[in-house]
Amino acid sequence: MMSSVKVESVVKSSALIGEGPVWEESEQMLMFVDIAGQKIHRWSPTTNQIQSVETGDTVGFAVPRRLGGYVAGVGRSIVAVDWSTQTMTSLVEVDKEKPNNRLNDGKVDPIGRLLAGTMGKEVRPAEVQRQQGSLFSVTSDLTVSKHLSQVDISNGLDWSPDQKTFFYIDSLCLTVDAFDYDSNTGLIGNRRVVYRMEEGEGLPDGMTIDVEGRLWVACYNGGRVINIDPVTGVRLQAVSLPVMKTTSCCFGGPDYSDLYVTSASLGLDQSELRQQPLAGHTFRVTGLGVKGRPSNSFSG
Q: For 51-101, how does the pLDDT look when each residue is reduced to its tens digit (9 = 90+)?
Protein backbone atom coordinates (compact mmCIF):
# COMPACT_ATOMS: atom_id res chain seq x y z
CA MET A 1 0.00 0.00 0.00
CA MET A 2 1.28 3.46 -0.88
CA SER A 3 2.70 5.38 2.06
CA SER A 4 0.45 8.37 1.37
CA VAL A 5 -2.70 6.33 1.95
CA LYS A 6 -4.50 7.23 5.17
CA VAL A 7 -7.41 5.34 6.78
CA GLU A 8 -9.52 7.09 9.42
CA SER A 9 -12.76 6.27 11.20
CA VAL A 10 -15.21 9.07 10.41
CA VAL A 11 -18.64 7.74 11.38
CA LYS A 12 -17.94 6.40 14.83
CA SER A 13 -21.33 4.94 15.66
CA SER A 14 -21.17 1.16 15.42
CA ALA A 15 -23.47 -0.31 12.77
CA LEU A 16 -24.62 -3.92 12.97
CA ILE A 17 -24.20 -4.24 9.19
CA GLY A 18 -23.13 -0.93 7.67
CA GLU A 19 -23.64 -1.13 3.89
CA GLY A 20 -24.42 0.60 0.61
CA PRO A 21 -22.53 3.91 0.91
CA VAL A 22 -23.62 6.54 -1.65
CA TRP A 23 -22.20 10.05 -1.97
CA GLU A 24 -24.92 12.68 -2.34
CA GLU A 25 -23.29 15.36 -4.43
CA SER A 26 -26.04 17.97 -4.02
CA GLU A 27 -25.88 17.73 -0.24
CA GLN A 28 -22.19 16.79 0.07
CA MET A 29 -23.26 14.02 2.42
CA LEU A 30 -22.60 10.32 2.74
CA MET A 31 -25.64 8.09 2.78
CA PHE A 32 -25.45 4.48 3.95
CA VAL A 33 -27.64 1.84 5.58
CA ASP A 34 -27.48 -0.45 8.58
CA ILE A 35 -29.15 -3.60 7.26
CA ALA A 36 -29.80 -5.38 10.55
CA GLY A 37 -30.11 -2.11 12.48
CA GLN A 38 -32.97 -1.22 10.10
CA LYS A 39 -31.84 2.36 9.53
CA ILE A 40 -30.84 4.68 6.69
CA HIS A 41 -28.16 7.18 7.70
CA ARG A 42 -26.92 10.45 6.21
CA TRP A 43 -23.65 11.84 7.54
CA SER A 44 -22.14 15.27 6.88
CA PRO A 45 -18.33 15.44 6.78
CA THR A 46 -18.61 19.21 7.30
CA THR A 47 -20.62 19.14 10.52
CA ASN A 48 -20.00 15.50 11.57
CA GLN A 49 -23.75 15.26 12.19
CA ILE A 50 -25.72 12.12 11.38
CA GLN A 51 -29.41 11.95 10.47
CA SER A 52 -31.30 8.66 10.45
CA VAL A 53 -34.60 7.16 9.34
CA GLU A 54 -35.89 3.90 10.80
CA THR A 55 -37.14 1.44 8.18
CA GLY A 56 -39.00 -1.12 10.32
CA ASP A 57 -37.38 -4.04 8.46
CA THR A 58 -33.98 -4.94 7.02
CA VAL A 59 -32.77 -2.34 4.53
CA GLY A 60 -30.34 -3.46 1.84
CA PHE A 61 -29.72 -0.15 0.06
CA ALA A 62 -30.90 3.43 -0.35
CA VAL A 63 -30.27 5.60 -3.41
CA PRO A 64 -31.33 9.10 -4.50
CA ARG A 65 -34.42 9.51 -6.66
CA ARG A 66 -34.72 12.05 -9.46
CA LEU A 67 -38.19 13.05 -8.26
CA GLY A 68 -36.68 13.88 -4.88
CA GLY A 69 -36.19 11.76 -1.80
CA TYR A 70 -34.84 8.25 -2.14
CA VAL A 71 -35.73 4.69 -3.00
CA ALA A 72 -34.66 1.88 -0.71
CA GLY A 73 -34.82 -1.89 -0.54
CA VAL A 74 -36.73 -2.68 2.66
CA GLY A 75 -37.57 -6.31 3.29
CA ARG A 76 -38.65 -7.49 -0.18
CA SER A 77 -40.11 -4.11 -1.19
CA ILE A 78 -38.69 -1.23 -3.19
CA VAL A 79 -39.97 1.78 -1.26
CA ALA A 80 -40.01 5.53 -1.76
CA VAL A 81 -38.50 7.39 1.19
CA ASP A 82 -39.59 10.92 2.07
CA TRP A 83 -36.81 12.13 4.32
CA SER A 84 -38.57 15.27 5.54
CA THR A 85 -41.55 13.33 6.90
CA GLN A 86 -39.56 10.13 7.61
CA THR A 87 -42.21 8.10 5.80
CA MET A 88 -41.96 5.25 3.32
CA THR A 89 -44.32 4.17 0.55
CA SER A 90 -44.05 0.75 -1.09
CA LEU A 91 -43.59 0.94 -4.87
CA VAL A 92 -43.12 -2.71 -5.84
CA GLU A 93 -42.42 -6.04 -4.18
CA VAL A 94 -40.09 -8.80 -5.41
CA ASP A 95 -39.73 -12.51 -4.55
CA LYS A 96 -43.33 -12.67 -3.36
CA GLU A 97 -43.15 -16.45 -3.36
CA LYS A 98 -40.12 -16.40 -1.05
CA PRO A 99 -41.14 -14.73 2.23
CA ASN A 100 -37.80 -15.60 3.86
CA ASN A 101 -35.86 -13.58 1.28
CA ARG A 102 -34.77 -9.97 1.60
CA LEU A 103 -33.31 -7.33 -0.67
CA ASN A 104 -29.57 -6.80 -0.38
CA ASP A 105 -27.34 -4.54 -2.47
CA GLY A 106 -28.80 -2.24 -5.12
CA LYS A 107 -27.48 0.45 -7.45
CA VAL A 108 -28.72 2.65 -10.30
CA ASP A 109 -27.36 2.29 -13.81
CA PRO A 110 -26.27 5.28 -15.95
CA ILE A 111 -29.75 5.79 -17.46
CA GLY A 112 -31.61 5.65 -14.13
CA ARG A 113 -32.64 1.98 -13.99
CA LEU A 114 -32.39 0.34 -10.56
CA LEU A 115 -30.71 -3.05 -10.24
CA ALA A 116 -31.14 -4.87 -6.94
CA GLY A 117 -30.67 -8.39 -5.72
CA THR A 118 -32.12 -10.66 -3.08
CA MET A 119 -30.86 -13.40 -0.79
CA GLY A 120 -32.26 -15.82 1.75
CA LYS A 121 -32.39 -14.71 5.38
CA GLU A 122 -29.14 -15.41 7.17
CA VAL A 123 -28.86 -18.01 9.92
CA ARG A 124 -25.61 -16.34 10.95
CA PRO A 125 -23.73 -13.63 9.02
CA ALA A 126 -22.93 -14.93 5.50
CA GLU A 127 -24.64 -18.26 6.23
CA VAL A 128 -27.73 -18.60 4.05
CA GLN A 129 -29.89 -21.18 2.37
CA ARG A 130 -28.18 -21.20 -1.00
CA GLN A 131 -29.52 -20.32 -4.43
CA GLN A 132 -32.61 -18.56 -3.08
CA GLY A 133 -31.76 -15.10 -4.41
CA SER A 134 -32.26 -13.30 -7.72
CA LEU A 135 -31.14 -10.13 -9.50
CA PHE A 136 -33.87 -7.76 -10.64
CA SER A 137 -34.11 -4.46 -12.48
CA VAL A 138 -36.78 -1.82 -11.92
CA THR A 139 -37.45 0.82 -14.57
CA SER A 140 -38.97 4.29 -14.20
CA ASP A 141 -42.49 2.91 -14.76
CA LEU A 142 -41.82 0.30 -12.03
CA THR A 143 -41.58 -2.63 -14.46
CA VAL A 144 -39.67 -5.42 -12.73
CA SER A 145 -37.48 -7.85 -14.71
CA LYS A 146 -35.57 -10.82 -13.33
CA HIS A 147 -32.09 -11.25 -14.82
CA LEU A 148 -30.53 -13.94 -12.64
CA SER A 149 -31.89 -16.63 -10.33
CA GLN A 150 -30.32 -19.22 -8.02
CA VAL A 151 -28.11 -16.52 -6.50
CA ASP A 152 -26.61 -17.15 -3.05
CA ILE A 153 -25.89 -13.60 -1.78
CA SER A 154 -26.57 -10.92 -4.39
CA ASN A 155 -24.04 -8.21 -3.68
CA GLY A 156 -21.77 -5.59 -5.28
CA LEU A 157 -22.63 -4.13 -8.67
CA ASP A 158 -21.40 -1.35 -10.95
CA TRP A 159 -20.87 -0.40 -14.58
CA SER A 160 -17.81 0.31 -16.72
CA PRO A 161 -17.27 3.94 -17.78
CA ASP A 162 -18.48 3.13 -21.33
CA GLN A 163 -21.65 1.48 -19.84
CA LYS A 164 -21.03 -1.67 -21.91
CA THR A 165 -19.98 -3.91 -19.01
CA PHE A 166 -21.88 -4.72 -15.84
CA PHE A 167 -19.85 -6.00 -12.90
CA TYR A 168 -21.55 -8.18 -10.31
CA ILE A 169 -20.77 -10.16 -7.17
CA ASP A 170 -22.53 -13.24 -5.83
CA SER A 171 -20.49 -13.42 -2.62
CA LEU A 172 -20.39 -17.17 -2.02
CA CYS A 173 -19.07 -17.78 -5.55
CA LEU A 174 -15.88 -15.98 -4.38
CA THR A 175 -15.61 -14.20 -7.73
CA VAL A 176 -16.16 -10.81 -9.30
CA ASP A 177 -18.03 -11.36 -12.58
CA ALA A 178 -18.65 -9.28 -15.68
CA PHE A 179 -21.54 -9.26 -18.14
CA ASP A 180 -22.07 -7.52 -21.44
CA TYR A 181 -24.62 -4.77 -20.73
CA ASP A 182 -27.14 -3.18 -23.07
CA SER A 183 -28.04 0.10 -21.40
CA ASN A 184 -31.01 0.59 -23.76
CA THR A 185 -32.75 -2.65 -22.79
CA GLY A 186 -31.02 -3.42 -19.47
CA LEU A 187 -30.29 -6.94 -20.69
CA ILE A 188 -27.16 -8.75 -19.49
CA GLY A 189 -25.27 -11.64 -21.06
CA ASN A 190 -21.93 -13.36 -21.64
CA ARG A 191 -21.09 -13.87 -17.97
CA ARG A 192 -17.41 -14.35 -17.16
CA VAL A 193 -15.13 -14.23 -14.14
CA VAL A 194 -12.80 -11.23 -13.95
CA TYR A 195 -11.33 -11.95 -10.52
CA ARG A 196 -11.24 -14.93 -8.19
CA MET A 197 -10.68 -14.22 -4.49
CA GLU A 198 -7.37 -15.40 -3.07
CA GLU A 199 -6.76 -17.17 0.22
CA GLY A 200 -7.27 -14.75 3.12
CA GLU A 201 -9.19 -12.16 1.13
CA GLY A 202 -12.56 -13.22 2.56
CA LEU A 203 -15.85 -12.87 0.67
CA PRO A 204 -16.31 -10.24 -2.05
CA ASP A 205 -19.03 -7.86 -0.86
CA GLY A 206 -19.92 -4.35 -2.06
CA MET A 207 -17.87 -2.59 -4.72
CA THR A 208 -17.40 0.60 -6.67
CA ILE A 209 -15.52 1.65 -9.80
CA ASP A 210 -13.13 4.55 -10.40
CA VAL A 211 -12.89 6.82 -13.45
CA GLU A 212 -10.17 4.58 -14.89
CA GLY A 213 -12.55 1.61 -14.88
CA ARG A 214 -10.87 -0.23 -12.04
CA LEU A 215 -12.89 -1.98 -9.36
CA TRP A 216 -12.63 -1.48 -5.61
CA VAL A 217 -14.06 -4.46 -3.76
CA ALA A 218 -14.76 -4.64 -0.01
CA CYS A 219 -13.64 -7.98 1.40
CA TYR A 220 -15.98 -9.27 4.11
CA ASN A 221 -13.98 -11.19 6.74
CA GLY A 222 -10.89 -10.00 4.87
CA GLY A 223 -10.32 -6.64 6.56
CA ARG A 224 -9.43 -4.86 3.34
CA VAL A 225 -10.56 -3.27 0.11
CA ILE A 226 -8.85 -4.60 -3.01
CA ASN A 227 -8.34 -2.73 -6.27
CA ILE A 228 -8.75 -4.90 -9.38
CA ASP A 229 -8.08 -4.30 -13.05
CA PRO A 230 -11.06 -6.12 -14.61
CA VAL A 231 -9.35 -6.28 -17.99
CA THR A 232 -6.28 -8.17 -16.80
CA GLY A 233 -7.78 -9.73 -13.67
CA VAL A 234 -4.82 -8.45 -11.67
CA ARG A 235 -5.09 -7.16 -8.11
CA LEU A 236 -3.34 -3.79 -8.19
CA GLN A 237 -3.55 -2.78 -4.56
CA ALA A 238 -4.96 -3.73 -1.16
CA VAL A 239 -6.01 -1.22 1.49
CA SER A 240 -6.03 -2.70 5.00
CA LEU A 241 -8.66 -1.58 7.51
CA PRO A 242 -8.72 -2.01 11.30
CA VAL A 243 -11.87 -4.18 11.06
CA MET A 244 -12.41 -7.60 9.48
CA LYS A 245 -15.99 -7.25 8.25
CA THR A 246 -15.52 -4.60 5.57
CA THR A 247 -18.79 -4.51 3.61
CA SER A 248 -18.89 -1.90 0.84
CA CYS A 249 -17.30 1.27 -0.51
CA CYS A 250 -17.90 4.33 -2.64
CA PHE A 251 -15.97 7.38 -3.74
CA GLY A 252 -17.04 10.76 -2.41
CA GLY A 253 -15.87 14.14 -1.23
CA PRO A 254 -15.82 17.39 -3.23
CA ASP A 255 -13.71 15.86 -6.02
CA TYR A 256 -14.55 12.16 -5.49
CA SER A 257 -11.04 11.30 -4.35
CA ASP A 258 -12.07 9.98 -0.90
CA LEU A 259 -13.00 6.31 -0.61
CA TYR A 260 -15.65 5.66 2.04
CA VAL A 261 -15.79 2.12 3.44
CA THR A 262 -18.58 0.66 5.59
CA SER A 263 -18.19 -2.24 8.01
CA ALA A 264 -20.17 -4.60 10.24
CA SER A 265 -20.03 -5.64 13.88
CA LEU A 266 -22.77 -8.29 13.82
CA GLY A 267 -21.45 -11.80 14.39
CA LEU A 268 -18.32 -10.79 16.29
CA ASP A 269 -17.89 -12.32 19.72
CA GLN A 270 -16.71 -10.37 22.78
CA SER A 271 -13.07 -11.23 22.18
CA GLU A 272 -13.26 -10.12 18.53
CA LEU A 273 -15.03 -6.90 19.50
CA ARG A 274 -12.22 -6.12 21.97
CA GLN A 275 -9.68 -6.69 19.21
CA GLN A 276 -11.71 -4.62 16.73
CA PRO A 277 -13.19 -1.71 18.71
CA LEU A 278 -13.95 0.14 15.47
CA ALA A 279 -16.11 -2.67 14.02
CA GLY A 280 -19.24 -1.19 12.47
CA HIS A 281 -17.65 2.23 11.91
CA THR A 282 -17.48 3.91 8.51
CA PHE A 283 -13.99 4.83 7.29
CA ARG A 284 -12.52 7.38 4.90
CA VAL A 285 -9.47 6.41 2.84
CA THR A 286 -7.45 9.28 1.36
CA GLY A 287 -4.30 9.48 -0.72
CA LEU A 288 -5.23 6.77 -3.22
CA GLY A 289 -4.50 9.02 -6.19
CA VAL A 290 -7.70 8.03 -8.03
CA LYS A 291 -11.21 9.44 -8.32
CA GLY A 292 -14.67 7.98 -8.57
CA ARG A 293 -17.75 9.19 -10.40
CA PRO A 294 -21.02 10.70 -9.23
CA SER A 295 -23.70 8.14 -8.37
CA ASN A 296 -26.82 7.84 -10.50
CA SER A 297 -30.37 8.62 -9.38
CA PHE A 298 -33.36 6.35 -9.88
CA SER A 299 -35.59 7.70 -12.65
CA GLY A 300 -38.85 6.28 -11.29
A: 999 999 999 999 999 999 999 999 999 999 999 999 999 999 999 999 999
Tell me the β-bridge partners of 178. 167, 192
* Residue-level length of the chain: 300
Q: How far is residue 175's CA from residue 152's CA, in Å, rounded to a whole number?
A: 12
Q: How many CB atoms lie within 10 A of CB 112?
A: 15
Our measurement of the distance from residue 137's CA atom to the centroid of its chain's CA atoms, rounded to an integer in Å, reads 16
Task: Give φ, ψ of 272 to 5 degrees.
Answer: -65, -40
246-252 and 258-263 strand pairing: antiparallel
Which candidate, 130, 72, 125, places its Cα nearest to that of 101? 130
CB neighbour list of residue 120: distance below 8 Å, 6 or more residues apart: 98, 100, 101, 128, 129, 130, 132, 133
Q: Which whole-number Å values give the CA distances from 42 to 90, 216, 247, 257, in the listed order?
A: 21, 22, 17, 19
- Taking only the tens place, the pLDDT of each residue in 119-167 is 998 878 878 989 999 999 999 999 999 999 999 999 999 999 999 999 9
CA distance linking residue 22 with residue 295, whole number of Å: 7
The whole model's pTM is what? 0.97
pLDDT > 70 fraction of the chain, expressed in percent and rounded = 99
Q: List active site positions.
A: 205
Contact (Cβ atoms closer than 8 angstroms) between residue 39 and residue 280: no
